[in-house]
Predict the 3D structure of the following.
Amino acid sequence: MAELMPLAAAIAANVHDGDTVAYEGFTHLIPFAAAHETIRQGRRELTLIRMTPDIIYDQMIGAGCARKLKFSWGGNPGVGSLHRMRDAVENGWPQALELEEHSHAAMANAYEAGAANLPFAMLRGYIGADLPKVNPMIRTVTCPFTAEVLAAVPAIRPDVAVIHAQRADRKGNVLVEGIVGVQKEAVLAAKRSVVTVEEIVEELQPPSPNSVVLPHWTITAIAHVPGGAYPSYAFGHYQRNNAFYIAWDKIARERQSFLAWLQDNVLSGRPEDFARYARRQAAAE
Amino acid sequence: MSETVTPTEMMTIAAARALTNADICFVGIGAPSAACNLARLTHAPDITLIYESGTIATKPDVLPLSIGDGELCETALFTVSVPEMFRYWLQGGRITTGFLGGAQIDRFANLNTTVVGDYAHPKVRLPGGGGAPEIASNCGRILITMAMGTRAFVEKLPFITSMGHGEGGDHRARLGLKTKGPTAVITDLCIMEPDPLTKELTVTSIHPGVAREAVAAASGWPLKFATAVAETPAPTAEELSVLRDIQARTRHAHKAA
């Protein structure tokens, strides 16, 4: 049953050192405020899962939260490399980062298998590609009907899924709109889930019966954090700050500039700080 | 408008011409996205553009910086979840054309976007494959666009992220693939197509003002040239102005915070 609580309490109660966690969002609705809170609380030895670890995981890796990353595309979209992730992989700073690398199709299927309570996912994938040679978690399964050999990967079953959504109602039912990514699958695959939302409303009022709704009984904790997806975006609320994604390349390139940014913007910050982004964008439109 | 066409503009325009109204196209970010939208805004207004974020039949007014910018969703016919995108639409065989870029390519149009150096101890860790491994196998045909240079067009790839024609010849068929694989590589200097038999990339058209020697020098392997090499038609005034307009709109949009 979803419990409405402050973000700090939601993270403290649900994300523990050593947990396997998925902070999901496919470019859209990336839970930045929740990740910053996780960094502030000093979580360590996390296994991070995400299809597209962009600058949110760059920040968590650079801050020393992670020992392993399971992913399928790790970059700053349209800009270039994740310098903190690269520093961890290439130089072991601030600590070594173990990688488990898949393709998008495999990760998406693996989340779906997790949500469906299956042990593994299968797909027609990785044909002629080198990843199966370096990732022992990519195996094969033979179709019992046609004998076709298909790729198989283990289901994703995180300890915690963390997502950002447009709104929740007072009972804790959650609505996600726009590019919905794999957030529904991530929440249903996880043991626990934390959702930050732009607004809390009396009635959810989904615009269509086919809207993506996560009922309150699938969610552990909800925190009201307006602007909590910034600098990514919340469809219907504020736009992606592409200028910040471009600026991140310079901030993250050197350890010193990254640490200074982390101190000023995360370690000295509060979840309420994100509200100013929601307001600023709303006023500009 | 400047009359001097940059090599990147020529590449984008040549890549756009490879697309038609009938294409249902899975679009990679960066150079492929520019080419696909140029095609849509010029000769192929009914082309279906699909981005892996789940946006189907999208018509962005500015080029997205990421694969999931809000612009893509707002202008799409509909948007699906990422698992549905990869399962029903891509693996389901509904997509005629995949448009990819890459960091490195070899003579059989295999692509690397994973690592330079040893996988476990890489010299350079690149972003990885994302959707490319399955785009490369499941789309009807693959178009590739990337700028030439000896660090990009290499004799041997350190890692095969997505398969092109593998070891050449009938390698794809031997692995059970029924799709065509790469049918053209459109660069800033020329257009290459796989030899019908060996599948080795062969220069079939050189862009205006580019010397054959310059094309050869920009490849890390001894490039094959077709018996009759064409000259790529120069960009039309319309192609150039539409491309420059969308690039200007995009620059303006991405600067705004």
Observations:
- Residues 104-154 of chain A form one domain.
- The radius of gyration of chain A is 19 Å.
- Chain A touches chain B through 57 residues (CB under 8 Å).
- Chain A has a mean pLDDT of 95.
